[in-house]
Design goal:
Distance between the termini: 60 Å
Oligomer: single chain
Strand content: 25-35%
CATH topology of the domain at 368-675: Porin
Number of helices: 22
Largest sheet: 16 strands, antiparallel, barrel
Strand order of the largest sheet: 1-2-3-4-5-6-7-8-9-10-11-12-13-14-15-16
Number of strands: 16
Length: about 675
């Protein structure tokens, strides 16, 4: 076999392998070449070279079946024609008919054991099959005959990379670059090696060199966009994919990738537009339907999202991703039973589908009955405004047990048993002012009223107040029973949220003669909030407190602005203004709240500092209240969560009192599968 022919057909194989593996940056039109060789074949049907060339250009045009027929015709007229056999073997490999391709290549090598083109082609087919070790051995064998053979070196470099032998792959490409420093194929191979090995910065540098030679090479634009995405540089990734989309606006895969990037940066409208275009270009690509369905769910377009997931299932009824999408949609829409049903359908298709495993675990644990046991301690230290001396200490110990059963989202019933012990000690005399217990049994119901927008919540409490220990300065004459509770209506629509509430609660007061009395305190309120963006929100509230035993009624107005920093979303700043009358009290507050997660996001830590500047008509000047709060939550197990909350308040100024609170509680999620450790481990 001559050198020219050997090189020519190796080039053909290489060119078409790239066509099969990558999108061509510049599709070529071979119609003139095809017409030329058809004419030659018509003039002389026995012109074997014309037949082989015609088959070659047909295969380059993607007309593989026609190409195979022409190759077979050439071989019928001239059995054993190596050029025809090589071409036919290559086309079979692109059609994934690997056994026919291997048979032809081995047949050539049986007659010509040192035929480099046949060895290179055979090695390439093994690489397509994933038989990388065999492929490498054959490429290495071909290089023993010609150590500088470009096609063998290119193939070997690529298969080394596919086999994750990145160091060996780089050495091969570096050797090629010594001879072909500006060859796009060599540079592309090296760039891919860097990309697949995670050396993204080096890969980007090589792709940029390719673009210096071919500025509109769409594969390089896509590759750079991909590598910037892997580096976490989403803006740069979007930039390069957008450039690729301008080069070829009809590439649905580019639009789909842009949609994913836009979604990661919360550009939901842009993401929806990109996915819509991807669907119009690739109507059978179910991933774009699934992705657009997810974006619509974020936009609260529930019906549109549901239709897209079901369209994906029409295309492929065995799509685990589409079922998982429906599971997530129903979960966020509060339809937990349907969510569990569709997550299970997804897992019946693919038992290892991570999104469904995580989703099923999340919704099952959220739906599980909840038992919470709490211990809280509150300590108030009262000081004289004139002397700053400690006058009184008040303690409050709270033990509670709560059991909640959830029928569905916003549908629950909760039973609660609570014991609170109140104690107050005179700091000067050392005697207790009072010591009494408050025992509560309560039942709470939450239920949706209208269109998943209006919700009712109500709780009824039956309380018992009784003295504890021997008599103190103030005591109840007898045990006192008291009925209390609350009811509220909650309305939600998009960024708007409003609550209308009523509550009746006990108000324990001391009376002349050393008695404790339980009076009614009725509160009426309305509270509304609006989220202008993911960073800025406002809250406004008004409450009217009706003291039924002749105490002055009190009105309470409050306005709050919260702002989360765009460049540091863990930090939220707040400003609040509050006014209460009877007695008049004006409070201006500034808040810094920092939240962070640790230990693979399991440990939640939140810290808060708040400064209240209070001017009260009954005090002599301004009081600055410094409030420090920490909140820590950690799941000891999937079904056991430990939470602690600590607050310290230090007052400076007219009212020098201070306050401490320690809250500890353990939450048990009563899910038998979780107890047995049967859920997916995150």
């Amino acid at each position: 076999m001559g050198k020219v022919r050997t090189y020519r057909f190796s080039a053909v194989i290489l060119f078409l392998a790239f066509l099969f593996s990558f999108h061509l940056a510049f599709p070529q039109d071979f119609s003139k070449d095809i017409d030329h060789y058809r004419k030659l074949v018509r003039e002389n049907p026995n012109n074997i070279e014309a037949l082989v060339q015609l088959a070659k250009y047909l295969s380059w045009s993607g007309r593989w079946d026609e190409s195979i027929d022409i190759y077979k015709e050439a071989l019928k007229k001239q059995p054993g024609n190596v050029d025809a056999e090589l071409g036919l073997a290559a086309v079979y490999s692109w059609q994934k008919k690997y056994s026919e391709s291997i048979r032809l290549y081995k047949g050539i090598l049986a007659k010509h054991p040192d035929h480099i083109d046949a060895m290179t082609g055979l090695a390439r087919v093994y690489s397509f099959q994933g038989s990388h070790t065999q492929s490498i051995q054959i490429f290495q064998k071909s290089l023993k005959y010609d150590s500088e053979n470009k096609e063998s070196l290119l193939g070997l470099g690529r298969v080394y990379s596919w086999n994750k032998q990145y160091v060996e792959s780089e050495k091969v490409y570096r050797k090629l670059l010594q001879k072909y420093p500006k060859d796009p194929e060599v540079l592309k191979g090296l760039a891919d090696t860097y990309k697949w090995s995670g050396q993204y910065t080096k890969g980007i540098d090589i792709e940029l060199k390719i673009l210096e030679m071919t500025p509109k090479n769409i594969d390089s634009h896509i590759s750079i966009g991909y590598m910037y995405g892997e580096l976490g540089a989403i803006k740069q990734s979007i930039h390069w994919y957008e450039k690729a989309a301008k080069i070829d606006p009809e590439r649905g895969d580019i639009q789909a990738h842009l949609g994913m990037l836009y979604s990661h940066t919360a550009q939901v409208d842009a993401a929806a537009t990109a996915f819509k275009k991807a669907i119009s270009l690739q109507e059978r690509d179910i991933q774009s339907y699934i992705s657009l369905g997810r974006v619509y769910s974020w936009q609260n377009k529930i019906e549109e999202s549901e239709k897209l997931y079901k369209k994906a299932l029409e295309i492929n009824p065995q799509s685990a991703g589409a079922y998982a999408g429906l599971g997530q949609l129903y979960f966020f829409n509060g339809q937990w039973r349907k969510s569990i049903e569709y997550y299970k359908k997804s897992l019946s298709i693919d038992p290892s589908y991570v999104e469904s495993l995580q989703g099923l675990k999340r919704v099952s644990l959220l739906k599980a009955p909840v038992y919470i046991t709490r211990y809280n301690l509150f300590v108030n230290n009262y000081h004289s405004a004139l002397t700053n001396q400690l006058t009184n200490k008040e303690y409050q110990h709270v033990f509670s047990h709560e059991l909640t059963y959830k029928f569905d989202a916003n549908k629950l019933i909760e039973a609660r048993a609570l014991l609170t012990q109140y104690a107050s000690r005179d700091a000067e005399t050392g005697f207790r002012d009072y010591l009494y217990n408050e025992k509560i049994m309560s039942l709470r119901l939450d239920y949706p009223v209208w269109k998943d927008r209006l919700f009712f919540s109500g709780r009824y409490d039956q309380e018992l107040f009784e003295n504890a220990g021997h008599p103190h300065t103030y005591n109840f004459r007898t045990d006192e029973w008291f009925s209390s509770g609350y009811s509220l209506l909650r309305y939600e629509k998009g960024p708007f949220f409003s609550i209308l509430s009523f509550s009746a609660e006990p108000n324990v007061t001391t009376r002349a003669g050393g008695t404790l009395n339980v009076d009614h305190l009725a509160s009426y309120g309305i509270s509304s909030s609006y989220d202008f963006s993911e960073y800025l929100s406002t809250i406004a509230t008004f409450f009217f407190n009706d003291y039924t035993k002749g105490t002055r009624d009190r009105r309470d107005w409050k306005g709050i602005i919260n702002y989360r920093l765009p460049f540091f979303k863990n930090l939220e700043l707040g400003y609040e203004m509050r006014f209460r009358d009877h007695p008049a009290e004006l409070t201006r507050s500034g808040t810094f709240r920092l939240q962070e997660r640790f230990l693979k996001d399991k440990l939640l830590v939140e810290g808060l500092y708040r400064l209240d500047s209070v001017i009260a008509s009954e005090n002599y000047g301004m009081t600055n209240k410094h409030i420090f709060q920490t909140f820590i939550s950690y799941p000891l197990l999937d079904w056991v969560i430990l939470t602690t909350d600590t607050t310290f308040q230090i007052n400076k100024g007219a009212d020098p009192d201070n306050f401490k609170a320690f809250r500890h509680y353990i939450t048990f999620l009563l899910d038998w599968k979780a107890v047995r450790g049967g859920y997916y481990k995150d």
